[in-house]
Specification:
471 residues; alpha+beta; five-stranded antiparallel β-sheet; 14 helices; binds adenosine-5'-diphosphate
């Protein structure tokens, strides 16, 4: 063999070996589309051995190709599109990426099994489609905002709920709510969302195309790029206007009723005082004692009614404060000296500060009364109650400690909620409003409120108030 023919046969062997090694199916056809060569991968892909293929026409082995566009177009024009095309083979039940190109004595075909990739794409498409359907059929307002808070998407429900064409909202700011306070609140929530917090259930307001205000209960979270930078915020809001209006009606009803109840009670108290005097002069001790009991029951009723009224006012943010400067210590001492007369527990006082506070004196006294009467109510063994105060930074911190039943761990986060009664205190009187009102009063006066407690050993309730530092 001369050198050239040795080289040629080497190239041929090498090319064949190489074709066997590659991971794609490789076919060689003559111009009548007869198989001349197939590699191992090709036989595996189509599930036929070399004998069944070589020398046969492709349309004899696979009649289905007669339907394929790539085949019919080739027969028509004898030309190929050089880009790979995706072809689904019904007999193989496989997706193939097929590249075809002519060489001087035939046609080369590379085929790759892309069924896995294709199925993943389909799944993705289907799930995207599902999400799209969910978003488009939901009655909730689904929105996507850019990082400046401007709409980049608004769901079709905007039309049904607020009467706005979703497209008309694109580019508008989410902060343009009907209420300036609300806008500030939304801005600060948006900042937290951009930092990665997922915010559930915050109340905001929206305005419909007729100018009516809607109450919306919304939640939102940010979507981050690969570098951890937020690039959009998704929010879902539910129209709760009807619920809020019902709540408002209920509140108005409670406020009105409790107000109306106060008048007859005041008259009843006057009559009781009158009768007490009469029984004293008649020396009718038994009637007098009975009347005293009635008097106490009326006192309790008065407290309950006052709590109900306060709670509705507090909830509607109608708690009007009359702030003034006063020495905090004096208020505590005065309140305690009055309270001690009606409480069996001994109140021990340790007040370390004589500083001024700027707050609503009457309301702060009410706070102290709430804490101390609770401490007494939940200490059935009539153990001592310790009231302390100290300075901490710019605040005065007050603690009211008791050695009573304590607060169960699971109740600790809820006892400041409206109408919440602890699991151990269902048999004790009260509506579960005292701590709620107390918390709101303290908040409005610039302070904080918290509790430390061990069940069965007692509780310490704390509150802080900013010291008056003004001139
Ligand atoms: P209530 O009318 O039930 O006393 P509050 O709002 O004053 O309502 O208190 C809420 C709940 O907190 C109470 O039901 C009770 O479980 C718990 N609680 C409040 N103060 C104390 C205390 N000093 N010791 C133990 N539990 C307390």
């Amino acid at each position: 063999m001369n050198k050239l023919s040795t080289q040629k046969s080497f190239q041929k062997v090498f090319a064949k070996e190489f074709m066997e090694m590659i991971d794609d199916a490789f076919f060689l056809f003559d111009y009548s589309l007869r198989f001349i060569f197939v590699n191992k991968k090709a036989t595996q892909l189509i599930g036929k051995n070399k004998k069944e293929l070589l020398g046969k026409r492709i349309d004899d082995v696979f009649p289905e190709v007669k339907q394929a566009k790539i085949y019919t177009e080739f027969l028509k024009s004898r030309k190929f599109n050089k880009n790979p095309i995706e072809y689904y083979s019904p007999s193989m039940k496989k997706w193939l990426s097929v590249s075809v190109f002519p060489i001087h004595y035939g046609i080369v075909v590379y085929a790759k099994d892309i069924t896995g990739k294709k199925e993943a794409e389909m799944l993705l498409f289907e799930s995207e489609e599902k999400y799209r359907l969910v978003v488009e059929s939901t009655v909730d307002l689904v929105s996507i905002f850019n990082t400046e808070g401007k709409f980049i998407y608004a769901s079709p429900s905007y039309k049904d709920v607020l009467g706005h064409d979703p497209k008309s909202l694109i580019g508008l700011s989410m902060f343009s709510t009907p209420d300036p306070n609300d806008s500030e609140k939304v801005k600060s929530i948006f900042k937290r969302i951009l930092k990665g917090e997922k915010i559930r259930k915050f109340m905001t307001k929206g305005i419909d195309n007729k100018g009516n205000i809607h109450f919306l209960e919304a939640s939102g979270s940010a979507i981050f790029d690969n570098h951890g930078k937020p690039y959009m915020v998704v929010s879902v809001a539910h129209d709760v206007t009807e619920r809020e209006e019902n709540e408002q009606r209920k509140e108005d009803f409670i406020a009105m009723t409790s107000h109306e109840l106060k008048t007859p009670l005041t008259s009843a108290k006057i009559f009781i005082q009158f009768l007490k005097k009469r029984f004293t002069s008649l020396k009718d001790k038994e009637s007098f004692t009975l009347l005293q009991k009635v008097d106490r029951v009326i006192d309790q009723l008065e407290i309950l009614i006052k709590e109900l009224l306060d709670a509705t006012l507090t909830n509607q943010k109608k708690l009007s404060l009359k702030k003034e400067n006063f020495i905090f210590r004096d208020l505590v001492l005065q309140t305690i000296s009055e309270l001690q007369l009606s409480i069996h527990n001994k109140i021990v006082v340790n007040l370390q500060t004589k500083k001024y506070v700027h707050a609503d004196k009457e309301k702060i006294s009410q706070v102290l009364i709430n804490f101390i009467t609770n401490a007494a109510k939940y200490s059935p063994k009539k153990t001592n109650i310790i009231v302390k105060s100290r300075e901490k930074g710019k605040f005065i911190v007050v603690s009211i400690q008791d050695f009573g039943i304590g607060v169960a761990k699971k109740d600790k986060t809820h006892i400041f909620d409206r109408f919440y009664k602890g699991s151990k205190s269902k048999t004790y009187p009260g509506l579960g409003l005292g701590l709620y009102i107390t918390k709101e009063i303290i908040k409005e006066n610039g302070g904080e409120i918290w509790v430390e407690s061990t069940e069965g050993k007692g509780s310490t309730f704390y509150f802080s108030l900013p010291m008056y530092t003004g001139k």
